[in-house]
Design goal:
about 260 residues, alpha/beta, Rossmann fold, six-stranded mixed beta sheet, four-stranded antiparallel beta sheet, 9 helices, about 35% helix, about 25% strand
Amino acid sequence: MLKMTNIYKTFNPDTVNEKQVLKGLNLELEDGDFVSVIGGNGAGKSTMLNMIAGVHYPDLGSITLDGEDITKLPEHGRAKYLGRVFQDPMMGTAANMEIEENLALAYRRGQKRGLSWGITKEEKELYVENLKMLDLGLESRLSSKVGLLSGGQRQALTLLMATLKQPKLLLLDEHTAALDPKTASKVLELSEQIINANSLTALMVTHNMKNAIQYGNRLIMMYEGRIIYDVSGETKKSLHVSDLLEKFEKASGGEFANDRMILS
């Protein structure tokens, strides 16, 4: 479903602020893979997601999605293929619009716009059924402004919006980092439920090693712009946080680059 080949990316080249973020990154995802991604700050995790989404283009290398070369495809051109949930719950929704209006925008992702009724009766029924799955009572609040929702409710709604059209690839960029532990756990459970129910292919960046082990069928660890560890199946299920810390310690020469990753 996804193939990233020999990806290099340097920001601010030939300046004092030059930073080489990706250094020959190679990654392949099979259809239906749910991959958790861990690594310290500066490992290249978010840059990798931005590269897939078209926010940045690689200096070298190629990106193929479901057999189509999207390396130079602009960000808006990839919208119909991708769903994305950001760390900030406020980024994925329009606060001044109603819940059903936000869902209608998501439902039309990648389609041409025309002049017609904004939301049909059939669509409204679809939104209600999908909102019921979240179990947050939002199905009875279709006309409520999204800005009135809590951070957890907005993130759950964003997750639903990102998967409403069943994207070829779902990108989860630390999508529970800004939530309290109880709400984060709920959103993670919803993520797994939606991914499994729709057989989606997903990449989930997280700093929480326990979550990385618990969720998904595969785990990769990044360090200095490369993948240094890739594990799946029963081997992944049997992992412990101490195993991941040991791997990271060896790669970093014994110096942990990110306290947040260790503490979480």
